Amino acid sequence: MDYRVLVTLIVGAVLVNNYILRQFLGVCPFLGVSKDMKGAVGMSAAIIFVMILATAVTWPIQRYLLDRNGLGFLQTIVFILEIATLVQIVEIILKKFIPSLYKILGIYLPLMTTNCAIFAVTIVNIKNEYSYIEALVNAFGSGLGFLLGMVIFSGIREYTENTDPPKAFKGLPITLISAALLSFSFFGFNGVIENMFR
Fold first, then answer.
1. CB under 8 Å to 69, separation ≥6 — which residues?
2. pLDDT of 15-27, one tens digit each?
3. Based on the structure, what is the number of domains in the chain?
4. pTM listed for this prediction
5. How far apart (Å, rounded) are the C-alpha atoms in residues 107 and 192?
6. Which residue of 75, 141, 142, 148 sits 20 to 30 Å from the alpha carbon of 15, by its own alpha carbon?
7. CA–CA separation, 98 and 88 (whole Å)
8. How far is CA 171 from the centre of its chain?
């Protein structure tokens, strides 16, 4: 396999097609957990882990079970059940080994079950007919993109929490404006993939 395909998938997932900042998927933990850098990194690590595992399990299920038996219509149900199982495993591991992070993530950890970014990665991998390796690399890149968005936004939020904006912008308004401006900045990466290996 050509390494350029894998590099293109990673760069595309991190910068060009970032699930949070370009496609607005997974916004719930993006807005909810980004107040604290430790929580943002912890949530992102959990998302990366679940994205990769979800891809590792859903790709063969789709190819060798659903497609071969004409059960493609069950894709959504099967994928969500599989993602929910993985999230429960992550929750059990965090509760047992990293209770402080488990407390920080709070309600957002079980919400990963219905995190549309994780579900979208599994669907995109099938829709784009990626090979198994390409699907795993895309999931990893998508998770890195999630991490990048969370870390940058967490830094912005920590800064804005310590400033004194006008009264009308305090709280949620300044958070949403900051998210919008950060999202606009990622539109500057359009065309990167097409020109990367020229």
1. none
2. 999 999 988 888 8
3. 1
4. 0.88
5. 37
6. 75
7. 15
8. 25
